[in-house]
Amino acid sequence: MKFYNFKTAPNPMKVRAVIIHHKIDIEIIDINLLEQENLTPKYLAINPRGTVPALLLDDGQILLESLAISTFLDSGYGEKSLFGSDQQEKAFILQKCIALEDFYIGVQEVFRNSLERYKNRGLPGSKAYEQIPALIERGNHRIDNNLELIENDMKNSLYLAKDKFSYADITLYIYLQFAKRVLKRDFSHLKSIMNWESRLSNEPSIKKLYDS
Ligand SMILES: N[C@@H](CCC(=O)N[C@@H](CS)C(=O)NCC(=O)O)C(=O)O
């Protein structure tokens, strides 16, 4: 298998957290998004969408989408699964992971529509999309509304889903660090999320992900 990655991009980072958690031995190939290596004919032949992550399977098939790649790699690790071990856990963890995309779309709406380097690249990937400045304000509302819901949910729980460390925690942690770094947003008023974040920063796979 070959894993197509970019070190600081949130979606490949989520997959790398799974690789680290399960100590999976896999070839990692970096595609430099800052130099638009994802838009070269060579990479588009691998993934015509021009996005990372992508996983090339041993039989030549290409698997896209961070959530699909992560569940694929995670399955087969039974008790240590990041996606839950019984019917309920699996459903609740998946529910959180999907819901977190609304938060991340808000983050994307802000940075893709405000940064000069995304001119005509308002959406990720190989196709041209104009920036829409009006989405910046809406994106910021979307971020705040999602975090308010998460803050309320987190008041009485240690983790995002079913009170155990899961891929949902990995997802939010990575999206939050990205939002702080790229948007320069301060979330310190969200006390439950901040407590959770400081606990998460001590999870071995998270520590290793950000140290590597
Ligand atoms: N839904 C996809 C999104 C993939 C995606 O948008 N990846 C970003 C990096 S986080 C990308 O490849 N961006 C390329 C670009 O900016 O053109 C997933 O979860 O894997």
Distance between the termini: 21 Å
User: Which architecture of the largest domain would the CATH scheme give at its second level?
Assistant: Up-down Bundle
Could you say how many structural domains there are in total?
2
Based on Cα principal axes, name the global outline.
globular
Helix content: 40-55%
Strand count, sense and barrel status of the largest sheet are: 4 strands, mixed
Q: How many separate helices?
A: 8
Instruction: Just give the CATH class of the largest domain.
Output: Mainly Alpha
The CATH topology of the largest domain is what?
Glutathione S-transferase Yfyf (Class Pi), Chain A, domain 2
Taking Cα atoms only, what radius of gyration do you get, to the nearest Å?
Answer: 17 Å
Strand arrangement across the biggest beta sheet: 2-1-3-4
The average pLDDT score comes to 96
Order of helices and strands: EHEHEEHHHHHH
Please count the beta strands (DSSP E, at least 2 residues each).
4
Which small molecules are bound? glutathione
Class by alpha and beta content? alpha+beta
Give unreliable regions as ranges: none
Describe the structure.
By secondary structure, this protein is an alpha+beta fold. The chain has 2 domains: 2-80, Glutaredoxin (3-Layer(aba) Sandwich), CATH 3.40.30.10; 87-211, Up-down Bundle (Glutathione S-transferase Yfyf (Class Pi), Chain A, domain 2), CATH 1.20.1050. 52% of the residues lie in helices and 7% in strands. It has 8 helices and 4 strands, in the order E-H-E-H-E-E-H-H-H-H-H-H. The chain has helices at 10-21, 41-46, 66-74, 87-114, 134-154, 167-183, 191-200, 204-211; strands at residues 2-5, 27-30, 54-56, 62-64. Strands 2-1-3-4 form a 4-stranded mixed sheet, covered by helices on one side. Strand 1 (2-5), helix 1 (10-21) and strand 2 (27-30) form a beta-alpha-beta unit. Helix 1 (10-21) crosses helix 8. The longest helix has 28 residues, at 87-114. It is globular, with a radius of gyration of 17 Å. The mean pLDDT is 96. Bound molecules: glutathione. Glutathione (GSH) is lined by residues 9-11, 33, 38, 50-53, 65-66, 124-125.
